[in-house]
Design a protein that fits this description.
By secondary structure, the protein is of the alpha/beta class. Helices cover 34% and strands 19% of the residues. Helix 2 runs parallel beside helix 4.
């Protein structure tokens, strides 16, 4: 069994503070999830300089980039995501909102995520989500659901055990 790895979500910070945040947390966290739409003072060249030193540890989240709805023709031209594609930086696509656009990033390292903030769907439903994700060949699969009971939490743990035998990298 592999060691537990920790990921620091980075949201609602100034782009000018990003380098200090990564540097000061580099020993405590193995990964940094940067929510691009929440970074103020987002200057592409500065962000690229900062993340270039953490290529294997950064996950970019391009939800509603720059406060706009996802327009993937714009995203493909975005210098930060172009850098991510050329340098192998992981990009997190949400299956509930980004599904039709993932093909635009074929060949790029991807983390596919599924979120349900109201409930934990049945194991059968979650396995169907995993199968849909599989068709996009993600590097990492992520399921995030709301547990309404301790049974929901137990079911997620059971699903995690099932996925450990089927998928190299998953987050539940």
């Amino acid at each position: 069994m592999s060691a537990i790895k920790y990921c620091l979500p980075i949201r609602n910070v100034a782009g000018s503070d990003l380098a200090d945040i990564l540097r000061s947390n580099a020993t405590a966290y193995q990964y940094f999830e940067i929510w691009l739409d929440t970074i103020s003072e987002l200057k592409s060249d500065k962000i690229i300089d900062v993340i270039s030193g953490y290529r294997d540890r950064v996950i970019l989240v391009p939800r509603a980039v720059y406060g706009r709805d996802n327009n993937y023709s714009d995203l493909k031209k975005d210098p930060i995501l172009q850098f991510a594609a050329s340098e192998g930086v992981l990009v997190d696509f949400d299956m509930t909102v980004d599904c039709q656009k993932i093909d635009s990033f074929a060949g790029q390292r991807k983390l596919l995520s599924y979120h349900n903030y109201q409930q934990t769907p049945s194991e059968k439903e979650l396995l169907a989500v995993i199968e849909k994700m599989r068709s996009y060949s993600p590097e990492i699969y992520k399921l995030a659901t709301y547990c309404n009971s301790s049974l929901d939490a137990l079911n997620l743990l059971q699903l995690r055990l099932t996925l450990n035998n089927q998928i190299d990298k998953s987050i539940v």
